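Pilot study result, target chain (326 residues):
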Amino acid sequence: MKKTTEKHLMVFSGRAHPTLAQEVADLLETELVPTTAYEFANSEIYVRYQESVRGSDAFVIQSHTAPINQWIMEHLIMVDALKRASAKRITVVMPFWGYSRQDKKHRGREPISARLMADLFKTAGADRIISVDLHADQLQGYFDGPVDHLMALPVLADYIKGKYGDAHGAELAVVSPDAGRIKVAERWSARLGGVPLAFIHKTRDTTRPNETVANRVVGEVAGKICVLTDDIIDTGGTIVKAAEAIMAEGAAGVVIAATHAILSDPAVDRLKNSPAIEVIVTDTLPIEDSKQFDKLTTLSIAPMLARAIREVFEDGSVTSMFDGHA
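Predicted structure:
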């Protein structure tokens, strides 16, 4: 008995960021699979899909936003439900990889929680991970399977080039918030037409999370519109101090660009009162109304996620989306 099977794309969404998942499904010209999800009285999470997923190519979208442990657990349970319902291939789409900053041991007796996340998803039944702008490239090696590492750089850089390229009569410069992200800054420079590079030399107190101690600009920024790039804005302390240091060196203006807008308190106040002209982020994480402010511009990551999902489903090339850099 022989049967030629057809591939069947199914898209699933957790409850953390349903707007993004819906936009991705719309771009793929499909519907999100109807899902029942709720908490029991003791806060345990229950998930059930309302239609058959047997033999499907399943893409499970969930943004790891606050309360992060709740949404990661829901994501894991969704994957487990798919595996036990005989989905053929399960791709975890996590625009932001929870715990990604805990990617190595700075001191003894610390965990490497980013690796633990990869192991949990593998154990739950994930075959593949799609994520955007990992905090460190080595996270791709933490998961025992394919990891498609998407970059928001084209989305952010093309917006900045269109808005600030020639508009201010001042040339652009790209500033990395630390020496470790200089390779990313080089890609930014190339995308913006080979503009000059600078970086912030900083020291971090390992006993105090989210805080840096010293800022010094290395490179020429005077008279330039400086694009200050980072992967994450959490409390905003690091990026705002960097913006102040750049302005102190005589820059014509600072534009902050970041992929993941966590925006924990007091980030919004810090960014509002910072010298930055504009703060540009993507919607990998949901930004609630109370965190919106005049300087904030949010760009959609959905077209990039949708294209990556399509390439994976059709056995195409995700790397081709980024000129061979992914």
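One observation from the pilot: Helices lie at 18-27, 68-84, 113-124, 153-164, 182-191, 237-248, 267-272, 302-313. A full batch analysis is planned for the follow-on phase.
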